[in-house]
Amino acid sequence: MSGNGRLAGKTAIVFGGGHGGVGPNGVVGIGFACAFTFATHGAVVVIVDRDAEAAQRSADAIAAAGGRSLAVVADMLDETQVLDAVGVALEAFGRLDVVQNNVGHVQLGGPQELTLAEWRAAVAINLDTVFLGAKATLAHLVATRGSMVNVSSTGSIRWTGYPYSGYAASKAAVNQLTRSLALEYADRGVRVNAILPGLIDTPLVYRELSDGHDVKAVRAERAANSPTGAMGTAQDVANAALFLACDESAYVTGTLLPVDGGLNVRVI
What we know:
The protein is an alpha/beta fold. 42% of the residues lie in helices and 15% in strands.
């Protein structure tokens, strides 16, 4: 691996870190980019995903680059499976220093379009998974004075042009959960922060957000809607996650860090 060892000697667990495949020009997801970046900088990485093949693809990519990782299959909506996944990580490596909660799902639609079941699913996938990830790992982070990084969204704090009220509301709840945990655990040495990605070019664009529309048109629209004129990449988010995971951010907690090219401060 070619990193500078910022996470050397640490064990990271990335919930939702599977490599779900690539889009045009090698576009990858945020979870995989973060897991790979952590490994690049010296961490042993436990990749937890409900998709066994995706989890193994991440582990294989890390191994091919000279890193150490372990693929674990678990449904993050099942508390027993989450606890078991953490148990496997601890049995294999003995400690947890970094926890990233990355599981999420976008369901387009507002109150008139979404069914109650779809609303509840959005809350479960985007919020309950963070709660269960935290519940299963916080005691271990206390032991190592570790760091938790939650992946939220710029959509949690402002309108981004997409009608996804369930996603926006549940990610806003992730923000407040992050801040609450940060203060609750600050005197125990655990840092809890969230990243708010904006218009990022990930496979999500080619699945949920294209929704039958021309992919090129969707990509062009997203790029045009960014203040920079271009979408960000999963690596942009991974770089921020690395900072929040490593000791360089030792005095940073309770922060909601936008990675969005300035989208969160634009008026129109």
